[in-house]
Amino acid sequence: MRRDAADALADQLEAGRVHVVLPHVVLTVDGLEVPPLKAVSDKQLAYARAVRASAIHGFLSVVLARSAKLPRSNVEEQMPMLAS
Asked: What is the pTM of this model?
């Protein structure tokens, strides 16, 4: 993930709203409660924010990619918030 994109995603996480964009799908997750990061230096804080943002983006991308391969009826039944 590029540094600018990681910073933007980290800012979104801290604000409680994340946008994940995949081909043909845009997901917005609202109401996130993300604990504040603590670090000794600004460099450590920047690294921790980037790692957390990358992990969240990777997780949501995998969830969306896997759900896209399921029949729509399965997605609606098992993951109603993704189907809407």
From this structure: 0.60
